[in-house]
From TrEMBL:
InterPro entries: Methyltransf_11 (IPR013216), SAM-dependent_MTases_sf (IPR029063). Keywords: Methyltransferase, S-adenosyl-L-methionine, Transferase. It comes from the Bacteria. Pfam families: Methyltransf_11. This is Methyltransferase type 11 domain-containing protein. Residues 105-215 form the Methyltransferase type domain. The lineage of its organism: Bacteria, Pseudomonadati, Planctomycetota, Planctomycetia, Planctomycetales.
């Protein structure tokens, strides 16, 4: 097959699918990684001096630590994550969702910086719900703008845990099979373990529709191999591993929910 026919075949195969090439999307996010790293380091030192320790898998400690930060402090300590989100999330979603309005969740959304990347990438008319248990961060997230590159998404926030029945912004339990895409950035691999992690993955499996996409973050506390096994047990097919840069040890692992037999 010639190069031209290969290009044509690739274009035909991706017709009707959402395209969000990371090289284009990252231009809308933060640059200057050195400045981001410097602000993060300086702020982490200041927080440690005040006894605020957020690197934990104890939910009560994590919630209290994040709730005790100002929005500026949260954004500084979350700076590298936010920089990475603009590269990783588009790489995770590119070519996997239909190019029509979708329903998405952003688990552990903090001040809405990963939500902003989702809202920017998803098709015009999509709805995105960020879920976060540190209430002060939810309030900051509600106050932001969420531009979309091709139109407008509806973005709302729910204050609550991702380790029990997931709720929408009105406090209602999200229905089984009603979501097309679940994203987590800086959450599973940093803050969830044991029963909490299992409960969160059960919820991801419950709310996603057949062929729905889960872009989930491995990290220091959760290897990508363990995450892959846990998702395979829940009926998901692994699609790809994405990273913001070759040195990124976290990034995301992307899965598709298989249609159940007979569905
Ligand atoms: C590293 S921050 C990432 C924030 C955001 N996803 C981003 O990429 O900018 C992790 C967030 O997860 C939240 N979080 C941790 N455990 C949670 C839980 N069990 N339920 C809801 N939110 C949680 C924390 O409060 C924090 O805001």
């Amino acid at each position: 097959m010639s190069a031209a026919s290969l290009r044509l075949a690739a274009a035909e195969a991706s017709a009707g699918l959402l395209r969000c090439p990371p090289a284009e999307v990252k231009e809308a996010g933060p640059g200057n990684l050195a400045g981001v790293v410097w602000r993060q380091w300086r702020t982490e030192r200041a927080l440690a001096a005040r006894g605020i320790e957020f690197r934990s898998a104890d939910p009560a400690q994590v919630e209290a630590a994040y709730a005790a930060m100002t929005a500026e402090e949260f954004n500084a300590v979350n700076g590298r994550q936010a920089w990475a989100n603009w590269r990783t999330i588009p790489a995770s979603l590119d070519g996997l969702l239909p190019d029509e309005p979708v329903r998405a969740l952003d688990l552990g959304c903090g001040t809405g910086r990963s939500t902003a990347v989702l809202a920017y990438c998803l098709p015009d008319g999509s709805t995105v719900t960020g879920i976060e248990f540190a209430v002060p961060l939810v309030e900051v997230a509600r106050g932001r703008e969420y531009p979309n590159r091709s139109g407008r998404c509806t973005v709302r926030f729910a204050a609550g845990s991702v380790c029990g029945p997931l709720t929408n912004a009105d406090g209602e339990t999200i229905a089984d099979g009603s979501i097309d895409c679940v994203n987590s950035s800086g959450l599973l691999g940093h803050h969830l373990a044991g029963d909490d992690l299992q409960a969160c993955l059960n919820e991801v499996a419950r709310v996603l529709t057949a062929n729905g996409v889960a872009a989930l973050d491995p990290g220091p506390g959760l290897s990508s191999a363990t995450l892959k096994r846990a998702m395979a047990e829940r009926g998901f097919q692994f699609v790809r591993r994405t990273r913001s840069n070759p040195l990124d040890r976290c990034g995301q692992a992307v899965f598709i929910k298989q249609a159940s037999e007979g569905a």
